[in-house]
Design a protein that fits this description.
single chain, mainly beta, Porin, 12-stranded antiparallel β-barrel, two-stranded antiparallel ribbon, 3 helices, YbjH
Length: about 260
Amino acid sequence: MNKNCYLIYLSLLCSFYSSLCMGQVNFLGKPGYIATPSAGVFENRPLGFSFSYLPNEYSIFTNGDRNIIHFYNVRFGFTSFMEVNLSIAHRPLMSEDIGVGDRQLDFRFRLLKEKKYLPALVLGWTPPGSVSPVLAHDYLVATKNLTTGIGQFNISAGYGSPYVIKRKNGGEALDLEVLKKTEFKGVKYLTGFFGGISYKPISWGGALIEYDSQTFNTGIFIAPVPWFILQGYTYEGKEFAFTLAANFPLNFSPRALRSYENKLD
């Protein structure tokens, strides 16, 4: 009896881990590169967790010199075409003044699946209504994967809206106004055209480069196990940052377990 229970547990565990997949994410925990998103979609709709460190000089925030950010992100694929992402931007040097930090909920919608000659297409949307939407960004991005004799390339290009929709100070939930990002606290994240390329010469790692609509950034990534990825990168070759990410699928199917149970019958 103990042997049978052990075999069932082992089959379930192997089925779970065989369904995990490596995937690059940006510092907000979404499929992407360093700061920029891609149109990549995790087909097994995993529950994703990530942590990112951003230095003060390249923080999204611009008020003062205490803007080192610790990003805590959670991502979940509700359907095959929609993901939701929650991000918390914790600034440890300002925690006594601002508490936990800025929070943002946003969505990704897959408009097109990648075809042989056509790229995947994803729309990113931040629901309006915040009084201070510093992290808000709306964008459209296309991504194409190319497999060659020297490795796999992932190429993306997109456009980020230069506007932000915010709730007026003291106004009701639907009392909104549209501002240019540059006029709202000097925010410039994902404003205009952006793009990125990643290169995987081996199955468990590679390198990437991006233009985040303001600067060029480069980095490397490794996946010591299929469900975990470590990314290290540099902003303009001046400051270093990193991201740790893990993906856990919720729709895995324990085929090995069912096969074992059939043999018992």
